[in-house]
Write a sequence for this structure.
C-alpha cells in the first residue's frame, strides 16, 4: 500500500517536472482580460525577442513601495507594425504603462499601452495594426 | 523635317504612357518591409499565367493570417457552425489535447501543446496558426514556399512524381526507408492557367493542426489550392482530409493574399531556444504561477 502511495507521489512529481519545460507562451487563460492597471515607472529592461518581447519596470504602489513589474508585448515583426523598435526603450526611461494583469495577483501583465518618454503612445502589438496610412 | 517631328511626338507619347503605366508599380523602392495594400479605385493588371512567384501578404494586413484560436475558417469558439466533423477517435484525441487557446484552453502550465520550446509545428500548422509574409519561388521542378513564421520552408514537387502510396510509411522510392516528416511530402500541378493545386501526406502525427489542438493522424492528406485572381491577388485555400480523425474533408483556411514589391524584405521571426528560455523565466512561468517570481 505504502509502495503504491510512493509510486503515485513519484508519478505526480515527475509530471510536475515534465510540465515546467513545456510552459507555453501566448494563451489568454492567465490574464484578467477585462481589467486594466495604469502605472508610472522606470524601465529596467526592454527585451526584444521571440516568442514575445517583454518590458521590465519598477513602479511605486499606493503605499510608496517599489514594485517590479513584467509586461509582455507581441513578437518583433508585429511590434514593428505597431510602431515599436528595438531601441524604443532604454534602461532608466520614465514611462506610463497600462497593463492587462494576470489573475494570480502578481505584478505581471500584458501591455495594453505604453507612453514613451517622448509622449508617443503605443499599444502592445496585438491585433490589427490599424490602417496602412497610420504606419 | 515634319516626319521627324511626328516620329518624335509619337515616341515621346509612347514613353510617357510607359512611364505612367509603370510608375505606380515599378518605382524604385527603399529596401525593407513596406507593405502594399489595395487602393480605392485601383484595378489590378490581369494575372500572369502559371505564375505564383513573389512575396505574398494577407490582403487585409499583416495580422490577417494570425489564427490564434484555431484554423481561420473553423475557429474553436463554440459556435455550432465551427464544430468539426470528428470521428470518435478524432473527438477523443481533441479532448486529450490541452491547448492554450480555444474552447478547451487551459493555463499555459497545463498545456501539452507539442510546439512550445521551438519544436517544429510542421505543415499545415504553419499556415493554420500564423500565415505571415511568405515568398513563393518556382523552378522547373518545384514550387518552394518560404514562410516568415519561424523562418521555415517547404518544397512542393512539380516534376510529375506521385505522393507516397502509404501515408503511414511514406517514401519517395524503394531505396529510401519509410520516413514520416514534420512537413510531409508534397506534390503539385496546374489544373488551369491560374490555379495550382498541391497535395501532401506522410506527416509525423506528433504535431497538431492548429493552435486550438485540432488533431491529425498519420493518414492526414492536405489539399492546397492557390488561385491567382489577378496580378496582385492570390487566394489560398487549405482543405483537411483525415479519415481517421474526421468523417469528411473540411476547409480550414481561405485567405486572400496581396502581392508585395520585389524589394520587400521579409522580417526575421526565428524561434530561438535561448530567447524562449529567457521569456519563460522572466514572464511566462511567473505569469502561470510557476517559479520563484
Amino acid at each position: 500500500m505504502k509502495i503504491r502511495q510512493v509510486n503515485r507521489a513519484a508519478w505526480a512529481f515527475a509530471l510536475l517536472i515534465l510540465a515546467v519545460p513545456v510552459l507555453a507562451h501566448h494563451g489568454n487563460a492567465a490574464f484578467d482580460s477585462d481589467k486594466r492597471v495604469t502605472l508610472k515607472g522606470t524601465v529596467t529592461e526592454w527585451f526584444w525577442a521571440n516568442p514575445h518581447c517583454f518590458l521590465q519596470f519598477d513602479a511605486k504602489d499606493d503605499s510608496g513601495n517599489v514594485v517590479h513589474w513584467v509586461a509582455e508585448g507581441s513578437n518583433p515583426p508585429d511590434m514593428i507594425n505597431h510602431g515599436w523598435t528595438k531601441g524604443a526603450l532604454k534602461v532608466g526611461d520614465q514611462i506610463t504603462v497600462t497593463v492587462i494583469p494576470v489573475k494570480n495577483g502578481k505584478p505581471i501583465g500584458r501591455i495594453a499601452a505604453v507612453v514613451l518618454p517622448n509622449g508617443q503612445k503605443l499599444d502592445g502589438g496585438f491585433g490589427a495594426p490599424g490602417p496602412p496610412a497610420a504606419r | 523635317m515634319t516626319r521627324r517631328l511626328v516620329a518624335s511626338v509619337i515616341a515621346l507619347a509612347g514613353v510617357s504612357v510607359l512611364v505612367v503605366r509603370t510608375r505606380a508599380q515599378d518605382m524604385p523602392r527603399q529596401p525593407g518591409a513596406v507593405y502594399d495594400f489595395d487602393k480605392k479605385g485601383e484595378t489590378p493588371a490581369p494575372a500572369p499565367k502559371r505564375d505564383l512567384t513573389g512575396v505574398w501578404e494577407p490582403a487585409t494586413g499583416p495580422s490577417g493570417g494570425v489564427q490564434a484560436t484555431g484554423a481561420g475558417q473553423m475557429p474553436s469558439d463554440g459556435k455550432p457552425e465551427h464544430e468539426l466533423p470528428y470521428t470518435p477517435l478524432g473527438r477523443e484525441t481533441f479532448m486529450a489535447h490541452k491547448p492554450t487557446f480555444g474552447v478547451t484552453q487551459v493555463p499555459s502550465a497545463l498545456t501539452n501543446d507539442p510546439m512550445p520550446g521551438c519544436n517544429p509545428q510542421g505543415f499545415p500548422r504553419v499556415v493554420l496558426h500564423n500565415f505571415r509574409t511568405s515568398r513563393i519561388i518556382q523552378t522547373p521542378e518545384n514550387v518552394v514556399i518560404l514562410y516568415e513564421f519561424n523562418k521555415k520552408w517547404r518544397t512542393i514537387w512539380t516534376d510529375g512524381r506521385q505522393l507516397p502510396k502509404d501515408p503511414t510509411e511514406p517514401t519517395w522510392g524503394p531505396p529510401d526507408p519509410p520516413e514520416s516528416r514534420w512537413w510531409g511530402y508534397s506534390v503539385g500541378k496546374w489544373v488551369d492557367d491560374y490555379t495550382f493545386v498541391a497535395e501532401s501526406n506522410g506527416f509525423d502525427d506528433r504535431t497538431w493542426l492548429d493552435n486550438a489542438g485540432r488533431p491529425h493522424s498519420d493518414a492526414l492528406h492536405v489539399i492546397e489550392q492557390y488561385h491567382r485572381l489577378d496580378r496582385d491577388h492570390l487566394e489560398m485555400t487549405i482543405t483537411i482530409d483525415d479519415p481517421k480523425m474526421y468523417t469528411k474533408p473540411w476547409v480550414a483556411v481561405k485567405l486572400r493574399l496581396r502581392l508585395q514589391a520585389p524589394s520587400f524584405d521579409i522580417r526575421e521571426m526565428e524561434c530561438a531556444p535561448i530567447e524562449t528560455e529567457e521569456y519563460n523565466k522572466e514572464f511566462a512561468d511567473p505569469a502561470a504561477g510557476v517559479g520563484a517570481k
